[in-house]
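Need tokens for this chain, all 416 residues.
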Amino acid sequence: MEESEYKGFTPDYIDALLPSQVFVFGSNVLGYHTGGASRTARKLFGAVWGQPEGLQGQSYAIPVDFGKGVRKDTEVKAAVDRFIDFAKEHTELFFFVTRVGCGIAGYRDEEMAQFFKGALELKNVSLPKSFVDALSIGEVFFNLERFIEAQKLDYDLALHEICEGQKRGHWIWYIFPQIKGLGHSYNSEYYGLSGKDEAKAYLDHPVLGQRLREITTALLNCNNSSVDDILGFPDNLKVRSCMTLFDIVAPNDIFSEALNKYYEGKRCDKTIWRLGMREEKSQNAIKISRLSIAKDGTVLLTDYRKEIKMEPIVKATYLLFLKHPEGITFKCLPDYRQELADIYQKIKPFGLTERAIRSIEDVTNPLLNSINEKCSRIRAVFQTEVDASLLDQYVIIGKSGEAKKIALPRDLVVWE
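Here are the structure tokens for all 416 residues:
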């Protein structure tokens, strides 16, 4: 694009840049640049496969997509802040920020714009017009009308069913809304709340807030003392998520009463996780789990009752490092090639295929990026299963040039 085309906003379409210009795009945490702006960055502007963040050629990646509809606003904000700091340090470059996060990652423009507020004052950063418009309004616009429309026919019915002590209709998503990302259905995505700000706006709404408190009161006062009987599965879990979200937004309100009566005061861990919060003093404080390795290589977070599923070569790499608490320097990986092959064969006992042998050779070749890519995959898998505060206990970490290791205390690792 020619310099004369720039009019203050990032153009909707960019297929060429001047030498000092940089294309800023949203990436997934694995750095797989396959679609949308990330594909453009890889094809045209030097984005590196497997690198989820930072300057790459004439592109800059910001990780915003954590897979499976997971929203991690705290980590996204931190990544955007790092970009803004980078732009401040490199005034010789001009950065065109695309609609980062507004595709597969699921953010709305007005939501993502808030993370880039600090870039407005920078002369070497342009933002999409949709971001600038959202920021110029001074507040985030939330489409709460979608709940008003959905409740027109169903709110009175829902209130009646709750008062009677037995839910029968299909209205849970827009009567007891949850944080976005807990489900994969259309309704859970469309009616999911983006975070604490939208939840607060919902509660402050003169109609929606009053109705939520009214139907929660009805839930507390109905004659049935079992939330499982009233709502059934999985709606009992959805209401717990809803009560957790609004109890965080409005502490000591009616929502904590519902949690105490029906859920023994325990909040929804997944809701807390998606809000980027820690509850170290709560009854269900997040604790580090033991890690069990079955004879067939199955990896289990024992105390969470979760299986960590990985592709065979990724799992074999993980188990290799788990067997070496002292750590392994990447430059010494060729020395561990046979051990990695032995671990792989225990996971896949039907012989090593040519493809498997090639993968093992690639992983143990320090001149290739394969080992970094496997570490990124391991991190991405654990990110969906453990709290962010505990993540570095389970994944392969280490400073450049030093031995990389899994920090989890080995008395928490059980080999069957």
